[in-house]
Write a structure and sequence with these properties.
With 253 residues, the protein is α/β, with parallel strands linked by helices. Helix content is 32%, strand content 19%. Strand 1 and strand 2 form a beta hairpin. The two termini are 14 Å apart. 43% of the residues are buried. The chain binds 2-amino-2-deoxy-6-O-phosphono-alpha-D-glucopyranose (GLP).
Length: 253
């Protein structure tokens, strides 16, 4: 089912399989329109099924990634690239090593940078030089974060070094042996860097996101719930599973 609710196009899929295919379809559409598209990639548990679908389409000869330019949203800091928890590693494992993306076209904040302030400036400069993104893929944190823009008293516009919120550390502990291993800091694109994207594709597929998605669409626009800023973007598509669309759809039933 497809809905237009406020400024959001909301697509709801009943099964995990349909959700993965629908999510991938938006990325495919972008690449078919322009094979040299600049696409912002997200990490986390959410987009994995969508990336699997892209790999399948590639293996079937239906997609060419050779001209695609990529920028990732964020990275833990400090972290080595070969650490299997780094987002660099995640992207290789879940997408890049399986497709014909040109490694020269891949941008991921450098978790190994010695001067983190300079890394942030340079990453933003690269985004700016590219003219920002055509399509930004986003997940959403249980606290309403997008990338690692955590709840705060202000929106941080550009790429920055940040301290992770307790809720984020708790949420991401599932990927680690223990919560003590979860990094406490990260580098992340800022709110302006994300909002500058021509199109935004927000993906969610877990019932635990229902409430935060409802606040994203209907709540006050506030840096305490960073995703609420998406109410100010003119081209946001959400691809949701039915269980996490519940909170939003309750408003129109
Ligand atoms: C992570 C990432 C975000 C991601 C979010 C949700 O920590 N920094 O970019 O969208 O939190 O993660 P998940 O998809 O695992 O729920």
């Amino acid at each position: 089912m497809e809905y237009k609710i406020r400024n959001f196009k909301i697509i709801v899929e009943e099964t995990a399989d349909a959700w993965g295919k629908q999510s991938a379809a938006w990325i495919v559409k972008q690449l078919h329109e322009n094979p040299a598209s600049k696409i912002g990639f997200a990490t986390g548990g959410t987009p994995v099924a969508a990336y699997k679908e892209l790999i399948e389409l590639y293996n079937e000869g239906k997609l060419d990634f050779s001209r695609m330019i990529t920028f990732n949203l964020d990275e833990y800091y400090p972290i080595r690239r070969d650490n299997n928890q780094s987002y660099y590693y995640f992207m290789q494992e879940n997408l890049f090593s399986h497709i014909n993306v040109n490694p020269d076209n891949v941008h991921i904040p450098n978790g190994e940078a010695t001067d983190i302030a300079e890394e942030c400036v340079q990453y933003e400069k690269q985004l700016e030089a590219a003219g920002y993104l055509d399509l930004q893929i986003l997940g959403i944190g249980p606290n309403g974060h997008i990338a690692f823009n955590e709840p705060d008293d202000h929106f941080e516009p550009n790429t920055h070094h940040t301290t992770l919120d307790k809720k984020t550390i708790e949420a991401n502990a599932r990927f680690f042996n223990s919560i003590d291993e979860v990094p406490t800091h990260a580098v992340t694109m800022g709110i302006q860097s994300i909002m500058a994207s021509k199109k935004i594709l927000l993906l969610a597929n877990s019932a635990s996101k229902s409430e935060v998605l409802e606040s994203t669409v209907f709540g006050k626009i506030t840096p305490q719930l960073p995703a609420s800023v998406l109410q100010l973007h003119h081209d946001v598509t959400m691809v949701l599973t039915a269980d996490c669309a519940d909170g939003i759809l309750a408003h129109i039933r």
